[in-house]
Amino acid sequence: MAADTTPVETGSGGPQPSDDPRPPTPSNPRRAARAARKAQYRSAGGARWGLTLLGFVLLAAGVLTILLVSGVFGQQRPQRPVLDPMIQQFLVANATATRLVAIAVGVLLLVLGLLWAARSLRPEGHPDLVLDGGTGTEIRIDASAAADAVADGASSLPGVTRARARMVGSAAAPAVRATVWIDEDVADDEVAEICRRLDAEVLAQVRDSLGLADLPVAVRLELDSAPRSGPRVA
Amino acid sequence: MRVLLRVLAPLVSLAVAALGVLLVVEVVAAWTSPGSGAGLLVPWRDWRTTGETVLWTAPPVLWIAIVAVVAGVVLLAVGLLARRHDIALTSPSPGLTVATAPRVLARLVGSRVRALDPVTAASVTASGRSVVVRARGRGEPDGLRDGARTAAAGVLDALPLARRPRVTVRATPEQPGTSKGVH
What we know:
heterodimer, A: alpha+beta, Alpha-Beta Plaits, three-stranded mixed β-sheet, two-stranded antiparallel ribbon, 6 helices, B: alpha+beta, 2 domains, two-stranded antiparallel sheet, DUF6286 (chain B), transmembrane helix (chain B), DUF6286 domain-containing protein (chain B)
């Protein structure tokens, strides 16, 4: 779950550089990058594909009908009934095949429609982390606890006012999606430093302590609109 | 567009599933008991009679086609345009992605441009590809434009942007006419 954190005043709660000088390196950088990109937001690719496909089918059907009516497919064609006797004869002649094809199309539409509806209505999962604790032992880390570790570390960085994180993905392939609010008055070149320290200190420590060198993290930077004490324009 | 996508997707998906159910039910019903009534759930035999009598030239056919074209264009637009417009930042390692909203970039650029002395007001529109600054202020428009461009470019250079957007600056003098040098 989400956890809002406040900035830590003292530096004691901040991330400490790991004792191990070598940062945990992901085994496959390309896969790690893909997983991190995937964690950025909940994918709506399926819904977009479905709507695009349906829109294309409707558009094509409408345009073809208009072309037919305007006589592009022959001047005699628009004078025939919509349900052409020729087509009807063909369907009646192949009645069994027509019925089987119609049933197959119906089942396909039903399955696709239900899968699509389930996908678009299902809430996003926040998996717990399961660590291998040896034979017969399973260490389960609560999703919010693991995400809070990232959020707490990020919010203790200088220039960061607060941070929120949540676990996304599946239990087999967990990832962290974090939103980091930076101070509006932070210098522009400090943003790169925040990103660098986030990766080298906060995430290195979290990955190290969880034993997940590959844990993908997607960070979204936001500007915090802190209440100003003085006038906006001096 | 994202909101429209989230509303439309479940509705359209359920409509597709319902269409599949109707098709299967009607075909099976017509197969097992041929010629009984107008149809089990929908009067498709009436529709067939209508289809056999109505010609392509009938006005309703054209209207239905136009409605289909409009609906198709709307669905295509929602499907193609409802993507995220986040701005990617360079990340220090492959397992981390950093992105921000165009709004954040616009606010950063806007605050730096407004901090300039001659600028009295500024509005910024930002996307991953371009940043448009409209600055209003005192003095010569050329000087104002150069100052605003330098400030905006400074922000874009300092931020670790994966792709640097193009900067366009439009400067307007505070009091039109006074800076034209007519007198």
